[in-house]
Specification:
By secondary structure, this protein is of the alpha/beta class. It contains 14 helices and 10 strands. It folds into 2 domains: about 230 residues, Malonyl-Coenzyme A Acyl Carrier Protein, domain 2 (3-Layer(aba) Sandwich); about 70 residues, 2-Layer Sandwich (Alpha-Beta Plaits), CATH 3.30.70.250. Strand 9, helix 13 and strand 10 form a beta-alpha-beta unit. Helix 5 runs parallel beside helix 6 and helix 5 runs antiparallel to helix 7. The protein is globular and about 55 Å long.
């Protein structure tokens, strides 16, 4: 039996028109997208791009499109033939939780909207920035952040692959870390075009608000286990998910370790579901011997189904 990880992308992967093919072709996908309000659905399919970049729209949009594409996959192949686990990068963790069955789509949409609002408020209270450092060892990145912390908060927050780590914090400190990274042999060190210091300790107020928000929902025993961002561990324990979802907001995303743990557990096929192919690209940096593919279009879906059936 093939062991398959379904991966779900985070914010930044959105594009105008995403999911439209699935909406037009698969009633199950249409059913998901029709649960959105008309304004959001119109922005997803028609833009403008500037609106879709806004966290308020981007997060529920990516969540909805990812779940809609999963519904098309579920309708195209018998998933019970495979051993499946899920994982999502940052926001994508909510898509992974929804398709695993911890909560329904409607509740997930409310959670994602609240999360986006709380992160936006925390970013306004504690402005900051992020940067991607390429080609540096983890220990060197941690050291660079420590040095830059003289100017403010600076923390490694996304351990994406052995060669890509994202840092986050106050603007001056992150800019200093970029300078230090270049001086310490980084292949590339670039500031990211983001609206806040995501996943850093500056997001503490957002995680506190999310803790209160999540108490409104009942989570159930899921169909599939999920590998959670904050600790890179598999879980089917619904009682732990609220705690981990709170922790996720102001803790690093341990993506590299999550995928390495999946590989160590015998998973050999990795399918990214949703807009973009960021996670497929990272998988190739983590272990290019494993099958990694993305489903962003109907043609991608057909190819993935063929691959899974082979």
């Amino acid at each position: 039996m093939k062991k398959v990880i379904l991966m779900f992308p985070g914010q930044g992967s959105q594009t105008v028109g995403m999911g439209k093919e699935f909406y037009d072709k698969f009633p199950a996908s249409k059913n998901i997208m029709d649960k959105l309000d008309d304004e959001l659905k119109n922005i997803i399919f028609n833009g403008p791009e500037e609106s879709l970049k806004d966290t308020k729209y981007a997060q529920p949009a990516i969540f909805a499109v990812s779940v809609a594409i999963f519904e098309a996959l579920k309708n195209s192949i018998d998933l019970s033939k495979f051993e499946i686990a899920t994982a999502g990068h940052s926001l994508g963790e909510y898509s992974a939780l929804a398709v695993s069955g911890f909560f329904n789509f409607e509740d997930g949409l409310k959670m994602v909207k609240a999360r986006g609002q709380f992160i936006g408020e925390a970013s306004a209270e504690n402005p900051g920035s992020m940067a991607a450092l390429i080609g540096m060892k983890k220990e060197t990145v941690i050291d660079v952040c420590k040095q830059a912390s003289e100017l403010g908060v600076c923390e490694p927050v996304n351990f994406n692959s052995p060669v890509q780590i994202v840092i986050s914090g106050t603007k001056a400190a992150v800019e200093k870390a970029v300078e230090l990274a270049k001086a310490n042999g980084a292949l590339k060190a670039v500031m990211l075009n983001v609206s806040g210091p995501f996943h850093s300790s500056l997001m503490k107020s957002a995680s506190e608000k999310m803790k209160v928000e999540l108490e409104k929902y009942n989570l159930v025993e899921p169909k599939y286990p999920i590998i959670t961002n904050c600790d890179a561990q598999f879980t089917k324990d619904s009682s732990l998910i609220k705690e981990k979802s709170v922790k996720q907001i102001c803790n690093p995303v341990l993506w590299d370790t999550s995928m390495s743990n999946a590989i160590a557990d015998g998973f050999d096929t990795f399918i990214e579901i949703g807009p973009g192919r960021v996670l497929t690209g990272l998988m190739k940096k983590i272990d290019r011997t494993k099958k990694a593919m993305n489903i962003e279009t109907v043609a991608d879906l057909e190819k993935a189904v063929e691959e899974l059936n082979s």
